[in-house]
Amino acid sequence: MTDTSRTRPWTRLGGIVRQTWRDFLSVYYANTPVWRWLKSGALVFLGFFLWMGGNVLTAYWIDATALRYAIAYGFVLIAWGPLTHLLVVPAVIRLRRTAENPTVRRIARNGSKINFTTFLLIVAVVGTLAPGVMLLDFSSGFGADGGDVTADLVCETDGDPVTCELETAEGVDHVVLLAGGEEIDRSDEPPYAVSAPRESLSDGPSGKQFEVELRDSNGDTLRRFIRTV
Prior knowledge:
Layout (H helix, E strand, L loop, with lengths): L3 H25 L4 H26 L6 H34 L3 H8 L1 H19 L9 H4 L7 E7 L5 E9 L3 E6 L2 E6 L6 E3 L5 E3 L2 E9 L5 E8 L1
Helix pairs in contact: 2-3, 3-4, 3-5
């Protein structure tokens, strides 16, 4: 005699999962013009959100590898979403109904899996290579801490070493230049000129980068600048 009190919850859960999957497939394969454009637009929006949001977060977490792949996912999805629902899905549906060649029919039956696998492979490659067109530099805008310090930082990043100094500075005791969390140089007198070899700089979302911190006599940070080479 089976214990129905134990099997029923699992049976119900399995039924819910199967029905959810059927509903997902019905939306995925919905092929009317309205549904094509709705799905394409939703994926473009999701891709843009992941792409931009990931780039903003990368300005804070520079070495987060997972963020780079999230950015790549969104970046590729902006083009791949419309391609899938405007071209690939209609073609798969048509081939499933009309293809006579066994090989073509087999490919059509697995068209969605092939399409999704190809998409993930492209995301993996793009995330690993991290091309410059995918990465946006938000570090300069989001890396500066506000405060009551009036300062104008001028940097020369074309040469080696890179150099920075303050044209105006009020309430600053000393300035330090950091890369990867390590202090590379320090200046205690105006114009607070600091420098660092290029090879000592850390990797940022769009190139080598470094930080310049303005500090008070207690060593507390009054303001922080992040610059990209």
